[in-house]
User: What shape does this take?
Amino acid sequence: MSTQNPQDLTTKIGETLPFLRRYARALTGSQVDGDTYAAATLEAILSDMSIFDHEASHKVALFKVFHTIWASSGATFRLSETGIAAKAQEHLSQLTASTREALLLHTIEDLSFSDVASILGVTEIEAQTLVDIAYAEMAQSLAGHVMIIEDEAIIAMDLEAILAEMGHRVTGIARTADGAVALYDTKKPQLILSDIQLADGSSGVDAVNTILQDDADIPLIFITAFPERLLTGEGPEPAFLISKPYTEDQVRSAVSQAMFFSSTETLKA
Assistant: This one.
């Protein structure tokens, strides 16, 4: 039986919460739905501390409680049934059970196959197989036009190469907020991959907010060294967030997920 101080546990959970919210949003494709599931997870733990696995790491234990709630709800988009969420629900029905969960846990959250297995209640080999299946199924998604907002040339070129290998076309690379808006106006992308802090001191967030006034449904992926600064719960936040330094698998996973939740009728190979 754990003798850990409840206040200490609350502090540890609070430190891990931004990453649970990031995962929940990527899984549901919605800030509102993701945050609702995250809040339900905290409420469940506060109501019954025994459901929190004190033998596991705080992150794994927190995600295990989340998945109990996620599974009991039917793992569906019951909170949003129109627009992009409805399209995502249709696509979800065609995927192997638990593959997206395993992929996100392993790539975006950087959890080992052992931890993924513990969270999903499967064996380690099964967890690895689920990730492999997810990659294969996501690879069948339609390719699209992607705009990159990134001021570091090496990173921008790396992202462009990863996207090209995935079959996507890069509309261009912007180094400033003004440049990003101008590039968007020149050729409308189906996905935006954006850094936060740009070369001239401007913000990728500001550029994206301007673009969203024209197309509120365009899927977005932010890349930042400080993801917790964007996951405060104080306003609109990205459903897809990659931490720097990133891995190629993380970029591939996030892009596939974002395209998965987009309105695929507008995507062009």
About this structure: The CA atoms of residues 24 and 116 lie 15 Å apart. The beta strands are 145-149, 169-174, 191-195, 220-224, 241-243. The domain at 1-83 is CATH 1.10.1740.10 (Rna Polymerase Sigma Factor; Chain: A). The chain has a mean pLDDT of 82.
